[in-house]
Amino acid sequence: MSDTTPPQASSSPVTYSSAGVDTEAGDKAVELMKEAVRATHGTLVVGGVGGFAGMVDVSALKDYRRPLLATSTDGVGTKVAIAQALDIHHTIGQDLVGMVVDDIVVVGAKPLLMTDYIATGKVVPERIADIVRGIAEACAAIGVPLLGGETAEHPGLLEAGEYDVAGAATGVVEADAVLGADRVREGDVAIAMASSGLHSNGYSLVRRVLEVAGLGLDAHVAELGRTVGEELLEPTRLYTTVCLDLIAELDVHAFTHVTGGGLAANLARVLPAGLVATVDRGSWTVPPVFDLVRRLGAVPWHDVENTLNLGVGMVALVPADQADAAMATVRACGMDSWVLGAVRADTGELAADADRDLVRGTKGVHAGAVELTGRYRI
């Protein structure tokens, strides 16, 4: 048996700081962000910033007949790489809130709280504070308390300038008020709510296209009216307020949040089997950034529409006689709105052809179908 050389003690002390974790920087980051976080706290938040757990008073739930808690968690994907490349970090927080909270609203739930998580290779207090301020400001804009969060320093796992963000939210909805496929009926109309741009999906495709085309983030593009970087960092539009307004005012049957997978795949998720929604591709003009990505990368239209939102961020399904009222409510909230198409019975005879595509069975859900007709206006 060979001898084992005993380990040798370090010639100098190993500290948490020398291992790459700076707890003082973390404390400074909290100091810089806490006022923005506190500004999201209304009268229902119990306790202050910095506790082990955030608490919110849900006494009002006793007035519900059968309250259901709705929850969602998400991140912003590789859009963070754009923020890091440009060293601009105060907008990415709104993307996070939009991706998380607006998924909850889709089922008709009113958001109660949100939490966040940031992992980084090195805590730079000002950068972390910028990220959290963005999250807090977006939460404040839609009346949702940012109840807690965590910043984790992971030296050796992430580079000093790298970070990722994630968030989770919880909301409540009355059991008999849950929106979704079981409410959708033949004759319903699909009402589009315009996106603010790329939102937070498809950035792996977009970044690859820019790489292949050799187009830098600082390049000014006339059709965009700004630089590529400014366009790509445009924050995700928040739909929480307008969706809650629509629920309060109208007989909304379903919403769909157009995120990963594009319009058709996400719309099919909220249709019952046996119904098909026809979407007229020519009912709106596709914003320039989407066609720019398509042209620069010679990306097939099929790939584009299955990856990017193409200008539609949220869709409401309402009875036909309430379509005009729904569009008026959306426009009153400062965003464009139009009729995408309508819902009809699916006879099972539909088939794709040169000007029509059919999407069924997306996201693992046994649901309805979406028929995309015509051609996009660009």
TrEMBL record:
Compartments reported by the entry: Cytoplasm
Question: What's this protein's family per the entry?
Answer: Belongs to the AIR synthase family.
Q: Name one GO biological process term.
A: 'de novo' IMP biosynthetic process
Q: Does the keyword Cell membrane apply?
A: no
NCBIfam families to which the protein is assigned, alphabetical: purM
Q: Where is the major localization of this protein?
A: cytoplasm
Annotated ranges, domain PurM-like C-terminal: 185-347
Catalytic activity reads: 2-formamido-N(1)-(5-O-phospho-beta-D-ribosyl)acetamidine + ATP = 5-amino-1-(5-phospho-beta-D-ribosyl)imidazole + ADP + phosphate + H(+)
Which intervals hold domain PurM-like N-terminal? 69-173
Keyword Glycoprotein set for record: no
Q: Which GO terms describe its molecular function?
A: ATP binding; phosphoribosylamine-glycine ligase activity; phosphoribosylformylglycinamidine cyclo-ligase activity
Concerning Pfam families, the annotation shows:
AIRS, AIRS_C
- Annotated SUPFAM superfamilies: PurM C-terminal domain-like, PurM N-terminal domain-like
UniProt-recorded name of the protein: Phosphoribosylformylglycinamidine cyclo-ligase
Which residue stretches belong to region Disordered?
1-20
GO cellular component terms, alphabetically, are:
cytosol
Q: Which organism is it from?
A: Bogoriella caseilytica
EC numbers, comma separated: 6.3.3.1
